[in-house]
Design brief:
Layout: H1 11-14, H2 21-30, E1 36-40, H3 45-60, E2 69-74, H4 80-94, H5 102-109, E3 112-116, H6 122-139, E4 145-149, H7 156-165, E5 177-181, H8 189-202, E6 208-210, H9 218-228, E7 242-250, H10 259-263, H11 266-284, H12 293-305, E8 319-329, E9 332-334, E10 352-358, E11 368-374, E12 381-388, E13 408-414, E14 418-426, E15 434-442, H13 443-447, H14 454-464, H15 473-492, E16 500-503, H16 509-516
Parallel strand pairs: 1-2, 1-4, 2-3, 4-5, 5-6, 7-11, 8-16
Antiparallel strand pairs: 7-12, 8-9, 8-10, 10-11, 12-13, 13-14, 14-15
Helix pairs in contact: 3-4, 3-14, 7-8, 8-15, 11-12, 11-15, 12-15
The structure holds NADP nicotinamide-adenine-dinucleotide phosphate.
């Protein structure tokens, strides 16, 4: 431990709110208990780029509890000072509030320490235990612990088991111990079930926070507000009015040097199993009885349970996979997937996937949900497009309505956060001609303020014990059930071919044909 400062010199007391009632209300309502956060994998990329900048931003906004402390745990030979210097560099590069405020950083950094250790060596957890006890005494964290598994996934189970063996997962004195687990959570249904079992041996389910950072995004949370704080959408949010729903998570970047991870994972596991299934369940869920974590997650999981099973022998009816070949993205030539570093020759790993899913329940019977995600696509965009049915009777002549399209509602998640509703209007002039226009809402212009980073919201919620925006055990397993059916189908396919498409385009012809044969086409956002 690098400080002997008593907890009373904490950030909140030194930087009291300057009379902003909104902030003060927020702070009082949402200040967590004093606690220590142990980050396993603290010398890694996630801690550097995401976790520490988010924690610093929370400190700056006076949202962290009194005496908040961070204990880094990793392989690398560092002392507390070099660890802090490394973290400061990350904060300087990635915080939302730059340049960084020296006084806030110094105060925040007083609570940072480092334990060098090997995840697999039980003895090293003894030193962690000693450090935690010291933090409790010096910073007043009262035994409340948040363990963050920012490590390669193969270590998750062992870390939990070592913590349990050192009695670091449960205490009798009312203090809480929670664990945040990063993605990927499992490789298929069986491994996810095994991991859940291992994690739940150390922690009660209510103390497990499986992170899906998409759920921390403002616009994803806004799906709940949009659907359930407004009366006008729910009556049309069903099979009577909705023709189909299209969910797109498109990236223009490639695999960014993560060849060995990605080649073993692919787009289906990397994006569809978690982020896209979460978006699907938020769009399709029934209204929950309350915003209590389990009330919301009960409704989300019902959607996943209602997904129509995919027969692995008929996988091509439900899924298209492909790989990017070389091409141009933003005017720059980029290599094909198989030419990327640490990708196997002749790899069959998909960098693109398109799915057709059905939610077999009263509300959504026979409404297709089309999901697509991929790397090296034409544009970075995440959106949910709800396509409504055409009007039942054509009142206007075919000449007047030749440009007419059915109503469309687009929830834009990134990079332009907002929503747009497309509807028909009369073109000014002496004749009746119709044209679609957009009614647009954009977060940036409406609120004139930046959204917090997803990790800020999620770290704070985990400290508060609020699991609403985290995935529950049954949700993860239900999502894996569908994804594993597709994986099984692909593994049974006799051919060793995977369609290729030019980088910088919207994906393979096969995906276009997949929708065209149903009389539909993908949006070009
Ligand atoms: N990076 C991201 O933006 C991102 C985004 C979403 C999810 N994730 C997930 O977050 C997790 C961490 O990702 P990352 O990118 O931060 O990984 P990373 O950069 O490879 O960092 C891994 C960390 O684990 C430590 N480590 C590995 N083996 C160890 C051992 N046996 N004993 C002690 N320490 C060990 C490393 O320590 P040394 O370097 O000191 O050896 C390092 O601190 C992964 O599950 C990843 O999928 C990451």
């Amino acid at each position: 431990m690098t400080t002997t400062q008593p907890a009373s010199t904490n950030l909140q007391e030194r930087f009291q709110p300057a009379g902003n009632p909104l902030r003060e209300g927020l702070r009082i309502e949402r200040t967590p208990d004093p606690c220590a956060m142990v980050i396993f994998g603290a010398s890694g990329d996630l801690t550097y780029r995401k976790l520490m900048p988010a924690l610093y931003d929370l400190a700056l906004e006076r949202l962290l509890p009194a005496g908040f402390s961070v204990i880094g745990f990793a392989h690398r030979d560092m002392d507390a000072e070099s660890f802090k210097a490394h973290l400061r560099e990350g904060v300087e590069r990635f915080s939302r509030f730059r340049p960084i405020d020296d006084a806030i950083w110094e105060s925040f950094a007083e609570g940072i320490s480092y334990v060098r250790g090997d995840f697999n060596n039980p003895e090293d957890y003894e030193r962690l235990s000693v450090e935690l006890t010291a933090v409790d005494t010096q910073r007043g964290s009262m035994g409340n612990r948040m363990y963050y598994l920012a490590t390669p996934p193969e270590f998750y189970a062992n870390i939990v088991s070592c913590l349990g063996a050192k009695h670091l997962t449960h205490r009798e004195d009312g203090a809480w111990q929670r664990v945040i687990v990063e993605k990927p959570f499992g490789h298929d249904l069986e491994s996810a079930q095994g991991l859940n079992k291992a994690v739940n041996e150390g922690f009660d389910e209510r103390d497990v926070f499986r992170i899906d950072h998409y759920l921390g995004k403002e616009t994803v949370q806004n799906i709940l507000a949009f659907r359930f704080a407004n009366g006008i959408y729910e009556p049309i949010w069903n099979r009577q009015y909705v023709d189909h729903v299209e969910i797109t998570v498109a990236e223009s970047i490639g695999i960014e040097g993560r060849g060995s991870y990605y080649d073993d994972t692919g787009a289906l596991r990397d994006m569809a199993q978690n982020h896209m299934m979460q978006l699907l369940s938020l769009v399709a869920m029934e209204p929950p009885g309350s915003l209590h974590a389990d009330a919301v997650r009960d409704e989300k999981v019902k959607v996943l349970h209602a997904l129509r099973p995919i027969n692995p022998d008929l996988v091509n009816r439900s899924a298209v996979r492909a790989q990017y070949a070389d091409g141009f993205v933003s005017g720059k030539q980029v290599p094909g997937y198989r030419e990327e570093d640490r990708v196997a020759d002749g790899s069959l790993t998909e960098t693109y996937v398109a799915l057709k899913l059905f939610v077999d329940n009263w509300r959504w019977a026979d409404v297709p949900f089309y999901l697509r995600t991929g790397k090296r696509l034409a544009k970075r965009v995440t959106e949910i497009a709800v396509h409504f049915k055409p009007v039942p009777h054509r009142l206007f002549s075919s000449q007047a309505s030749q440009n007419l399209e059915p109503n469309l509602l687009v929830l834009e998640i990134q990079p332009d956060e907002g929503m747009a509703l497309k509807f028909a209007v009369k073109v000014p002039g002496p004749t009746m001609r119709l044209r679609p226009v957009n009614m647009v809402f954009q977060y940036g212009t409406a609120f004139n303020t930046g959204s917090p980073d997803a990790y800020e919201r999620l770290l704070l919620d985990a400290m508060l014990g609020d699991g609403t925006l985290f995935t529950r055990r049954d949700e993860v397993e239900a999502a894996w059930r569908t994804v594993t059916q597709i994986l099984d189908g692909w593994s049974n396919l006799p051919d060793d071919q995977i369609p290729q498409f030019e980088a910088g385009t919207w994906g393979p012809m096969e995906a276009d044909a997949f929708l065209n044969r149903e009389g539909r086409s993908w949006r070009r956002p």
